[in-house]
Amino acid sequence: MKTLADLRSRRWFDDQGMRGFAHRQRMQQQGFRREDIMGKPMIAILNTWSDLSPCHAHLRERAESVKKGILMAGGYPVELPAMSLGEVMVKPTTMLYRNFLAMEAEELLRSLPCDGAVLLGGCDKTTPGLLMGAFSMNIPAIFCPAGPMLNDRHVRDGKHRAIGAGTHTRMFWDEYQAGNLSKAELQEMEGRMTRAPGTCNTMGTASTMTGMTEALGMALPGSTSIPAMDASHPRMATSCGERIVQMVWEDLKPSNVLTRGSFQNALAVQMALGGSTNAAVHVIAMARRAGVNLTLDDLDAMSRRVPVIANLFPSGDRLMEDFYYAGGLPALMTVIRKELSLNEMTVTGKSVEDNIAKAVVHDAAVIRPLDNPVADGALAVLHGNLAPNGAVMKPGAAEKKYLQHTGKAMVFDSQPEMLKAMADESLDVDENTVLVLRNAGPVGAPGMPEWGGLPIPKKLLKRGVRDMLRLSDARMSGTHYGACVLHISPESAVGGPLALVQTGDVIEVNVEQRRLHLNVSDEELAKRRSVWKAPVQPFKRGFTKLYQAHVTQAHEGCDFDFLQGVDETPEPVIF
């Protein structure tokens, strides 16, 4: 157990020289009492609230609930704003700035007198970004999730249909493009589908990553499925504030929680949830910050063992609110307990086994038993001459016929080129064509945006086609679906084989064999490579230039090469 004299913040406030005098003086300038500064642990609340982040619209209020818990437990709260990565509004992609947030989180905690931290986030990149920074800083930290938005319903001709953010955005947009939905109906849905603050209520990247965070042991049991607008959500936030003060005294840090076993638990949960393919990038980056060498092969192996049992869009037909009522993540973890490392430590100070001991599945239609899964596997990692370092796919969200498919490629070098072609109803394409988008990876885009869910050509939508085989070095929104092979590594912009594909080439995908193959001879590929030139990049300064110079490839987590690992950074000199 730590004593007050052991705390980091004492370096700022206990100093008897002029510098300590100035620190105490300036804190009191804000109306803080001297006895609070001098006699309590200082707890940072890293808040990613923003008016342009609807998923986090309620986090100012939740910060107040966290503060209440901190004060009740005898700590002193300080709220620190951090970059808010609202998935929809940030351009060109939030993925470009995940590492920015990770750096900011780490440096905020290092440069300021913080003894512990509550991490307020939930939208896709905020969860891994905050955690990566907290892992590297390695002071006591707990994640307080934003929570999913409330369900919506589409009622038509007396029939009720559950509506979720993201997944149904693409579904209804395709129906509108096909002429099956009027502009007035679309506009009505626009104002109703996302009816409350909170993250996407499907099993998109947001709920995938918060669920994995809970499985890692970095969030309170059951916290990640509570709807953002449920009354239990602010109560959970208060509990986070109360618990972090106890963690500071216990000196319970991320390094005490994060092991290979805890990351295996996160992978098991990812697969059981039918989680987003984006998790493949984030969990590898997070693991490497914790000194755990996780690979795509680890993800594929877990997917082969653990079926999808959460009946949630896009693989199933329910939403996160239903998952909460069914028992949430602790209940799901009881179903897959044989795949879990149950003795791992968590932020509660107890083991995983203790945390889920009383959990019960209340609705087997939402959290299914192992003998009645939603799908056999949440993720497949493909290899071949087109993806030497791997590519990922979500088989359960694709039409089965495309899990073993051979077709001719139609190649696009940019997103605008591809979108223009998709709207052209004279495009020479059918449902057997393999659509290929390149220059969409970490370096090429830059930032590896969610362009991988390539739209279906308009002429095929009108014929009733709703899926095709699509390949790219981009990512895809976790809320989306379809036969999309993503994260092809190495990416085309750095000379990966995807750069050499030509329209008309035959591409073969076999998910069962985990095979992604370009049917072009090695000699022909060598000939093409001899004349290939890397795309000219327009970024000559700023964060994007730094990003392109130091980002790793998708199979390595897209972290910055100089931020991986567990080498310690010295505490700041105070003078």
Q: Over the alpha carbons, how many angstroms does the gyration radius reach?
A: 24 Å
The count of helical stretches stands at 21
End-to-end separation: 29 Å
Quaternary organization: single chain
Averaged pLDDT, please?
96
As a percent range, the share of helical residues equals: 25-40%
Query: Structural class, from helix and strand content?
Result: alpha/beta
Overall geometry? globular
Largest sheet: 6 strands, mixed
Main-sheet strand order equals 12-11-10-9-13-14
**Contiguous runs where pLDDT drops below 50 for at least 5 residues:** none
How many β strands by DSSP? 14
Beta fraction:
5-15%
Set out the fold topology.
Blueprint (H helix, E strand, L loop, with lengths): L9 H4 L4 H12 L4 H6 L2 E6 L11 H14 L3 E6 L13 H17 L4 E6 L4 H12 L3 E5 L6 E5 L2 E5 L3 H11 L5 H8 L14 H12 L15 H19 L3 H4 L2 H14 L5 H11 L6 H10 L14 H6 L2 H8 L16 H5 L23 E5 L2 E7 L10 E9 L2 H8 L11 E4 L20 H4 L7 E4 L11 E2 L20 E5 L4 E4 L3 H10 L10 H9 L25
Helix pairs in contact: 4-10, 5-6, 6-13, 9-12, 12-14
